[in-house]
Amino acid sequence: MDSTQIFERSEYHQRTINVFEVIASYFVDVYYNKLYFSAEKHAYEGKHPSTTMAYKHILSYYLERLTEPENYKKCLNELHMAYVKHLDKYATYNQCIDAITQEFVPEDFLNLRPNEKDSILHHVIKNSNMRFCHTLVNKCIKMIVDMHNEVNNVNVLQNLFIDNLIIEREEFYGRFLLGDKPAGVSPKMIESIRELNKSKMIVERTNVKLKQIIVKKEDELAAARKKIQTLEQLVKQFHAALAAAKEQNKKLQLLADASTVDKNPLDADAESAAASQESQPQIFESSILEERSESRRESRSRSASPVRNVSPASGMPDVSLSTLHDTGALSASDTIQLDFEDDEYLV
Question: Is a pLDDT exceeding 50 seen at residue 333?
Answer without folding.
Answer: no
